[in-house]
Design brief:
The chain is of the alpha+beta class. It has a single domain, classed as Glutaredoxin, CATH 3.40.30. Helices cover 29% and strands 22% of the residues. The protein has a 4-stranded mixed beta sheet, with helices on both faces.
Length: 89
């Protein structure tokens, strides 16, 4: 059975090298689905899966329905912004 790889992207120059890296690394034992969130796909499944997997940043990669650890827990929060001095002019 092939591994199911889902790549979440914004279709931008930052995401494209990651897409290429995954494609080059995957080989024949993987099936790759690209979710370009800037286009939001007609069926909205890309947005649904983004929410299901907890995608908070792009690019992000899920393998067999699980978001990779390297793609988790990097979220912009109000606390982080305030800590950086934003809003305290």
């Amino acid at each position: 059975m092939k591994r199911q790889i889902e790549i979440f992207t914004a279709g931008c120059p930052v995401c494209e090298p990651v897409v290429q890296l995954v494609k080059e690394t995957a080989g024949n034992d993987c099936e790759i689905t690209l979710h370009n969130l800037s286009e939001q796909c007609e069926s909205k499944i890309c947005v649904s899966k983004m929410n299901e997997y907890g995608v908070n940043r792009l690019p992000a990669i899920a393998v067999n329905g699980k978001l990779l650890d390297c793609c988790k827990n990097v979220e912009i929060t109000k606390d982080a912004l305030v800590h950086a001095g934003i809003g305290s002019c």
